[in-house]
Amino acid sequence: MVEMQMDELIDPNGAPRPLASAVMDLIARLGEDELRARQELAELDIQTMGITFTVYSDGQNIDRSWPFDIIPRIIEGSEWDRISLGLQQRLVALNRFIDDLYNDQRIIADGVFPADLLDQSVNYRPQLRGFSPKFGVWAHISGSDLVRDDDGEMYVLEDNLRVPSGVSYVVENRGVAKRAFAELFERQRIRPVDGYTDELNRLLTSLAPDGCDDPQIAVLTPGIFNSAYFEHSFLAERMGAELVEGADLVVGDDDYVYMKTIEGLERVDVIYRRIDDLFLDPDVFREDSLLGVPGLIRSWQAGKVALANAPGAGVADDKVVYAWVPDMIRYYLGEEPIVANVPTYRTMYEDERRHVIDNIGDLVLKPANESGGYGILIGSRATKDELDEAVRAIEADPRNWVAQPILSLSTVPTLVDEGVEGRHVDLRPFVLTGETSYVTPGGLTRVALRKDSLIVNSSQGGGSKDTWIVDGRYGSTYDSSPPDSPPRSSQSQSQSQSQSQSQTQRGEDG
């Protein structure tokens, strides 16, 4: 077990760090009883607004209220500016990499990226070779998970480029936090987050086919049984877009996509898809898919509809490919990475595989393409049988695994049964990439509510916090700009096979 850890709000002497002084002083003045009363009001707020997520358990869908801790995470604005630049740099390089793989494959020809790694990729879509979407961008909406180690630095832990989820909770968390700690928002310059949906709408509009000045935008969802359905409906409502399922759309003989309405067919120009690649189009991928739209890929490749994220973007959403991102930045941009990777051992190479096997008890083992924290093994907390099984899995399929050091993940004070104690956190900022880039001010802080746990995913008992990017003299500067507005709360029964597919393509990078 890792002994050393850094708390982001409390210094080693137990005093609040400067950026956290206003929050920690208020908590001390309130006392635990009043703090718990505000926590209970926040939880009631979440229940009233219907902010939920879905857990899959024994084949059943269980809707639960979104887990939220009232004590915020705080990051200094100047630090965030550097991280934001690093994330934009990273996504520019990743998108050039994806576009290169589907076209000239220069990075392979130049010996920077191994050809056999691409050959064994489960997320590479050879059907899309020779195609390049607008702006050469494939991963328009991404979420890169960040962690802070005990050296105080933020590192990129992984990239989520297929169907990243969680941004709705960033906006909703802010609304709940503002009602819980209204007095703090009057005294600090906390960067607003509720502009995200406007930025997303602007990005999707820019992707519309040429000559389409007022595009119809739709959010394509697998349906109500999907774990992120709350987010799908939230984003559609906030953008004024249509929320549709595959059965609501049809591709015409003219290759345009149309939405079925009571007044007839209405053209759709941009689709923000929240469905995994393999379920998008039964004519190209899985023939048994009831979630997608026959002919959708044909329409996209003909330039009649835009898809975000582009099918095939997941080729770079791979924990093995992740290890090459610093090389991608150097290769495509001629720059050094602004935000570093976590050191990563690639078991596909014999020397690195031997190191992992010999030191497996001191490492975190990760499968290449799982999401939501599934399949992760923390060596120091595993049994001998679990470690032996992991070694067998590595030796059977070395391409499918990577290992990383067990980091001393930073903690943030959290209200738990025992009182206010530090709990480990990570952070998922969301990056929008098109002709220009946008990074959320902060992102989704996920917190491991169980003592000493490093697993932050809500599906496995984790919670969330509002993330404050704070400018100015902490706690003493009054922000006279208008506050970000509080969030608003946010079709038919699916066929049994559609329900099963909606569950199967947990596809959202959770």
Report on the structure:
The chain is α+β, with helices and mostly antiparallel strands and 510 residues long. Helix content is 29%, strand content 23%. The chain contains 13 helices and 23 strands. The chain has helices spanning 21-49, 77-101, 106-109, 115-119, 167-180, 182-185, 196-206, 229-239, 296-301, 325-333, 350-358, 384-396, 496-504, and strands at residues 52-57, 60-65, 68-76, 141-148, 154-160, 189-190, 217-220, 242-244, 249-251, 257-261, 264-268, 270-273, 306-308, 345-346, 363-367, 377-378, 401-405, 411-416, 419-428, 430-433, 437-439, 444-447, 463-471. Strands 3, 6, 18, 19, 22 and 23 form a six-stranded mixed beta sheet that branches. A four-stranded antiparallel beta sheet has the order 5-4-20-21. A hairpin with a 5-residue loop joins β4 (141-148) and β5. α2 (77-101) crosses α10. The model is unreliable at 474-498 (pLDDT under 50).
